[in-house]
Design a protein that fits this description.
This protein is an alpha+beta fold. The chain contains 7 helices and 6 strands, in the order H-H-H-H-E-E-E-H-E-E-H-H-E. It folds into 2 domains: about 1-30; about 35-200, Electron Transport, Fmn-binding Protein, Chain A (Pnp Oxidase, Chain A, Roll). It is about 45% helix and about 20% strand. It is globular and about 35 Å long.
Length: about 210
């Protein structure tokens, strides 16, 4: 082997062992997988890990909410789509990709959402971190209830029964404690945070 070839092989080996290269390679491998990874079953009654509680606590701070709104929730939809649900910035939080159609445009919209299961139904909360307005994806699914969640065709239903909402809030707070603060902040702006449940549907349904 010539000196030039040896040097080239050495540089290639060094490049391939760099952390950035390794991460990019893993993301590309995940993206090439044909079958999306279905969202794992999230039992809201199970205790959260210490790290999960700490992460949720930070998310409720002013800095955490700023980072979530400006960085995490903007990047996560792209990461979840690229890796077919295998990787997201949400880390220890149960997140998955929600695909809706624009309420007016009908264009496909993608958002990362925190979720948990209630039997065979998936529950998501339109909190928007306690903002005075509902998130855009909520208006979308109200107009077009047929959505895709983690690659699975589903139909969205807004929970209106107050007793059922209270029951689900108890579960939601266990999954992500900052929801309690988000409810208080939203109430100050006279907004009631919606709870949405998703049920499986046939993929050809419209």
């Amino acid at each position: 082997m010539t000196k030039r070839a040896t040097r080239s092989a050495t540089l290639t080996t060094r490049r391939e062992t760099r952390p950035g290269f390794i991460l990019a390679n893993r993301l590309c491998c995940a993206a090439r997988s044909r079958r999306p990874k279905q969202p794992k079953y999230v039992d809201p009654t199970q205790p959260r890990t210490l790290f999960s509680r700490a992460y949720a606590g930070f998310s409720a701070t002013r800095l955490g909410r700023f980072i979530s709104a400006k960085i995490v929730w903007r990047i996560d939809p792209h990461l979840l789509r690229l890796t077919r649900g295998r990787f997201g910035i949400g880390l220890v939080l149960p997140t998955a990709l929600l695909e809706t159609r624009g309420a007016k445009s009908g264009a496909r919209r993608r958002n990362a959402v925190i979720y948990f299961h209630d039997g065979d139904r998936v529950t998501i909360v339109a909190s928007k971190a306690g903002h005075e307005r509902h998130p855009a994806w909520f208006h979308n699914l109200r107009a077009h209830p047929n959505v895709t969640f983690g690659g699975i065709p589903m139909r969205a239903t807004v929970v209106s029964d107050e007793a059922e909402r209270e029951r689900l809030w108890t579960l939601a707070d266990h999954v992500f404690a900052p929801y309690a603060r988000y409810r208080r902040d939203a109430a100050k702006a006279s907004r009631t945070i919606p709870i949405v449940q998703l049920t499986a549907r046939e993929s050809h349904a419209t």
